[in-house]
Amino acid sequence: MNAIPLRFACAGAPLIGMLHPADGRPELGVLIMVAGGPQYRIGGHRQLTLWSRKLSAEGYPVFRFDFRGMGDSYGEYRDFDAAEDDIRAALDRFFAEVPTLKNVVLWGECNACSAAAFFAHKEPRIKGIVMLNPWVRTEDGHAETVI
Fold it and tell me: How far apart are CA 47 and CA 116, in angstroms?
């Protein structure tokens, strides 16, 4: 199936995502969050597109999106510890587009997995996290460890 580009809002800023639909009436989906920093869908980050296609072909709808100020999304970039509104907006759009969904697994790389870990416990629709190369350093945490 072809990916469907979607535009949705977060705090007034237009965000861009790609929905990879799955056949049937799926109840579990995957929300892929592109890592912070200037990332592209080629090179090492091409894997997110490839995984999206593979998972949707296996029956799991996938919605991958760019946080505010990153990739194709507009707005001011916020660090991973302030991505809650972005994730919630993407979840709401994903559930609106795939009404059979009951649960979602968050998928992130680098600081996107840290954003997932900070957010997941607040949202009952999230049933798991896939973390690739998690980033766990914050300025506050670093200041506490440097003597």
Answer: 18
CA distance 73 to 87: 13
Residue 99 · residue 68 · CB < 8 Å: no
What is the arrangement of strands in the sheet containing 62-65, beginning at the earlier edge strand? 4-10, 13-20, 62-65, 28-33, 103-109, 126-132
Domain count, the chain: 1
CATH number of 88's domain = 3.40.50.1820
Q: Are strands 103-109 and 126-132 parallel, antiparallel or unpaired?
A: parallel
pLDDT in tens, 67-108: 877 778 877 777 777 688 999 999 999 999 999 999 999 998
For 11, left (φ over 0), alpha (ψ -120 to 50), or beta? left
The answer to whether the Cα torsion of 58, 126, 139, 11 is positive or negative is: positive
